[in-house]
């Protein structure tokens, strides 16, 4: 008996300490992440309106409904447009900033902090500032005041009568996240050995060529990680869309990314279709996983080609 | 910015939304910890929780707390809920800690009724049913049972600045064509012609475009929409023309439910609610008037929307019978409180028609006009016009106005959605 207990406790009570440290975290993960995910999967096969313990099994009904639902498919289109803007722009912007700040001779720490600071700001607060102050469509919005001063007309930024809302949404996220990815790139830059640059300099490499043939290839693993993170973050876009565009009349049908659409279906107040909402999140999760894996695969194939 | 109660009132079709708030998880139901009625022995009163959303007018919270305190057959704890109230309620109803009594715009949703989350209060209302305004009560009736008791009636109408219209030489518009012309005529570089929200009226005017063109949400057989008609398509095309005429102010310092854009002179006409009347009177004195939404096309009619926040009893509450007794006491029997609730904080219309003359704010001027509009041209929501159908209609409207989509094709999609929804809820 006692030998069993001793063995279970492990050498120097290692197993006990393992669970003391890991246990609470694991429990939290179980309760707040894994059980809800499993529950969502369960709900997605039921007609679950205004209940979390549904009784009417509908099989794949929720899935087939969503895959034929024009609004859901449009929301995927909205996401694609958003990702097509935000991923390359943030990538280029954060890489550019990282290169500049890395080269800075003075006040490097200051610039690094200054660009990183917006990351600490909440999406909700930033959305409020963008919506109510900068891009307010009324004549006293900040940008409109500037435009009027220059003799232009007011622009109704978020009204949907034009496509200016993309400018609002993209600049907002860019401001919030570019500093974070800059830090990732700076960490990558500092890992490149200086003697590589010295050797290149002796061979006569300058400016663009140094970047093209040394810096960028050496940043490959960082770039892959950044792209993947950016894409996933874009997929999860919710806060800035919801908080810049929601109004009393409801969320407008344009610029509605998948998560906002699913939120309105499942938790929107008037409708509480948890089965449909769950099915949507499962579809999104699978998509993110597939795209992420495909991207990793493509990149690893390319690196194999280059090494062979 | 004063947020009015109407923020949540789904007068335009039950679309549940709120502006920018962030929902907090409400673990506190507001129910006192002293235990439930079943726990207490002889003599102890049941303890009940009652939920309200955050009313914008000063004094409402104190008033409802006062009413609750005055009731001697139960201990009522009022919970005041800032933020996205409807989401808070629907989330709470999924748990075991439900509010015993809660208010909801135009009664509970059909899904709440069908999921068994709320109780039928027909017996509570009893003979008093006939004392309530019929179109107000209509959306709270399902399968001949009443599911909520109306607390107070709210309505919306068009406010205009007399001086600005006079200066431009136009009369208050009676028809939609006149509205288009008037808005263009009064507009200046700094003052918009007509304002109905920062979405250009897509959210709040949707239902009015149906009623003013002479139609109803649903057809007589109640199995599809009631406005798949060429006159409706023409009206929608007219609305698109209006939006592009330059007379519509599409952005202002606040949304349509707030008096600010109108009283600050940002617009000459604004579609907003009766509730802002005291603010408008204070700011503009006599320099304003009110009219219903103008009629559209030859078969049209003027219209105003009405709606009512209503008291609902949870099925899973601690003591449903005590909860029913309380809402009967407050919203059926205590007429002095009902008048106080409607008349003392902002302007509203008592839900029982006989009480309207006792509300002095409705006795003269714009208040009296509003009461007349409600009686003669008031339209309320329809339970079968579900949130999903309302969403489909808003999408159609947005596509027609913003993307130049063909009204007929878009309305056909709304009809398909409505048919599917009606079939679902009847199934």
Automatic annotation (TrEMBL), chain A:
Coiled coil: none annotated. It is a multi-pass membrane protein. The keyword Transmembrane helix applies. It is found in: Cell membrane. The chain crosses the membrane at residues 16-39, 79-101, 113-132, 163-184, 219-238, 274-294. Residues 76-295 form the ABC transmembrane type-1 domain. Keywords: Cell membrane, Membrane, Sugar transport, Transmembrane, Transmembrane helix, Transport. This is Multiple sugar transport system permease protein. It comes from Microlunatus panaciterrae.
TrEMBL record, chain B:
Transmembrane segments: none annotated. Residues 1-18 form the signal peptide. This is Multiple sugar transport system substrate-binding protein. Pfam families: SBP_bac_1 (PF01547). The keyword Signal applies. Keywords: Signal, Sugar transport, Transport. Belongs to the bacterial solute-binding protein 1 family. It comes from the Bacteria. It comes from Microlunatus panaciterrae. Gene3D superfamilies: Periplasmic binding protein-like II.
């Amino acid at each position: 008996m006692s030998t069993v207990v001793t063995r279970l406790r492990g050498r120097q009570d290692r197993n006990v300490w393992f669970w003391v440290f890991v246990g609470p975290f694991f429990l939290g993960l179980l309760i707040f992440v894994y059980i809800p995910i499993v529950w969502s999967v369960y709900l997605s096969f039921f007609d679950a309106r205004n209940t979390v313990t549904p009784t009417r099994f509908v099989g794949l009904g929720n899935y087939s409904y969503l895959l034929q639902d024009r609004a859901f498919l449009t929301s995927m289109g909205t996401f694609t447009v958003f990702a097509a803007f935000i991923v390359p722009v943030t990538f280029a912007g954060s890489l550019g900033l990282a290169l500049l700040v890395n080269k800075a001779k003075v006040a490097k720490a200051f610039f690094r902090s200054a660009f990183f600071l917006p990351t600490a700001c909440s999406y909700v607060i930033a959305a409020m500032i963008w919506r109510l102050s900068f891009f307010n469509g009324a004549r006293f919005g900040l940008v409109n005041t500037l435009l009027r001063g220059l003799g232009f007309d007011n622009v109704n930024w978020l009204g949907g009568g034009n496509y200016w809302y993309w400018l609002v949404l993209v600049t907002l996220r860019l401001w919030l996240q570019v500093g974070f990815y800059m830090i990732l790139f700076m960490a990558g830059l500092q890992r490149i050995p200086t003697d590589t640059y010295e050797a290149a300099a002796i061979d006569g490499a300058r400016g663009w060529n140094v970047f093209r043939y040394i810096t960028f290839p050496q940043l490959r693993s960082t770039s892959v990680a950044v792209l993947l993170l950016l894409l996933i973050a874009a997929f999860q876009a919710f806060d800035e869309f919801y908080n810049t565009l929601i109004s009393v009349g409801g969320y407008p049908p344009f610029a509605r990314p998948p998560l906002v659409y699913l939120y309105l279906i499942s938790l929107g107040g008037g409708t509480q279709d948890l089965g449909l909402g769950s099915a949507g999140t499962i579809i999104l999760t699978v998509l993110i996983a597939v795209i992420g894996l495909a991207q990793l695969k493509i990149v690893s194939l390319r690196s194999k080609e280059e090494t062979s | 910015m004063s947020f009015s109660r109407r923020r949540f009132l789904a007068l335009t079709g039950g679309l549940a939304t709120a502006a920018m708030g962030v929902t907090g998880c409400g673990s506190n139901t507001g129910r006192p910890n002293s235990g439930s009625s079943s726990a207490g022995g002889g003599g102890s009163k049941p303890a009940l929780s009652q939920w309200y959303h955050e009313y914008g007018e000063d004094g409402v919270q104190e008033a409802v707390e006062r009413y609750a305190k005055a009731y001697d057959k139960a201990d009522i704890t009022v919970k005041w809920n800032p933020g996205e109230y409807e989401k808070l309620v629907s989330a709470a109803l999924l748990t075991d800690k439900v509010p015993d009594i809660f208010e909801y715009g135009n009664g509970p949703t059909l899904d709440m009724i069908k999921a068994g989350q709320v109780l039928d209060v027909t017996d509570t209302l009893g003979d008093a049913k006939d004392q309530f305004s019929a179109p107000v009560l209509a959306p709270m009736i399902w399968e001949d049972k009443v599911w909520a008791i109306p607390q107070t009636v709210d309505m919306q109408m068009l406010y205009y600045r007399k001086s600005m219209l006079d200066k431009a030489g136009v009369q208050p518009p009676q028809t939609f064509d006149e509205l288009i012309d008037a808005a263009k005529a009064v507009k200046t570089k700094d003052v918009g012609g007509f304002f109905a929200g920062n979405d250009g009226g897509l959210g709040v005017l949707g239902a009015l475009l149906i009623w003013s063109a002479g139609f109803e949400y649903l057809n007589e057989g109640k199995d599809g929409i009631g406005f798949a008609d060429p006159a409706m398509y023409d009206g929608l095309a007219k609305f698109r023309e209006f939006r592009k005429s330059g007379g519509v102010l599409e952005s202002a310092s606040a949304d349509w439910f707030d008096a600010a854009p109108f009283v600050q002179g940002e617009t000459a006409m604004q579609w907003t609610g009766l509730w802002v009347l005291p603010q408008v009177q204070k700011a503009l004195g006599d320099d304003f008037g009110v009219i219903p939404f103008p009629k559209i096309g030859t078969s049209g009619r003027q219209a105003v929307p009405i709606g009512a926040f209503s008291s609902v009893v949870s099925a899973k509450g601690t003591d449903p019978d005590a909860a029913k007794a309380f809402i009967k006491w407050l919203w059926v029997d205590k007429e002095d409180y009902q008048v106080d609730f409607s008349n003392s904080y902002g302007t509203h219309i008592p839900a029982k028609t006989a009480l309207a003359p006792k509300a002095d704010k409705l006795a003269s001027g714009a208040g009296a006009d509003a009461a007349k509009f409600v009686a003669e041209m008031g339209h309320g929501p329809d339970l079968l016009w579900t949130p999903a159908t309302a969403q489909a209609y808003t999408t159609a409207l947005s596509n027609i106005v913003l993307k130049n989509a063909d009204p007929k094709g878009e309305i056909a999609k709304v009809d398909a959605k409505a048919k599917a929804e009606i079939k679902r809820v009847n199934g």
